Amino acid sequence: MNLEGLILLLYVLVLASYLGFELIAKVPPTLHTPLMSGSNAISGITIVGAILATNELGYTAFSKWLGMGALILATINVAGGYAVTDRMLKMFKKK
Predict the structure, then answer these.
(1) Local confidence band at 1 (pLDDT 50, 70, 90 cut-offs)
(2) Residue 15 region by backbone torsions, left for phi larger than 0, else alpha for psi between -120 and 50, else beta
(3) What Å distances lie between residue 76 and 25, 44, 88, 89, CA to CA?
(4) pTM to 2 decimals?
(5) CA proximity to 78, closest of 55, 53, 46
(6) What is the DSSP string of the chain?
(7) Of 22, 40, 43, 64, whose Cβ has the fewest other Cβ atoms within 10 Å?
């Protein structure tokens, strides 16, 4: 990977980190759980990025392993988020 590609990837990382922090920091505590359950779809973007990182387009073995780790962690995050959301919604159903 050349220097320009690395700078571009670092730029995307910093921009995504800043945007994520700003969005989450402005959420009031009473809305945190419902909004976080809806943001599980955003983790789907992480899954797509991880799949792209694990492909065979000339990336190093290290980046493929990092992509696989990201894929596993993002999948756990999405599944856990939907499980928590389902449990939260069951609290509001009449018995």
Answers:
(1) low
(2) alpha
(3) 23, 11, 18, 20
(4) 0.58
(5) 46
(6) --HHHHHHHHHHHHHHHHHHHHHHHTS-GGGHHHHHHHTHHHHHHHHHHHHHHTSSSS--HHHHHHHHHHHHHHHHHHHHHHHHHHHHHHTTS--
(7) 22
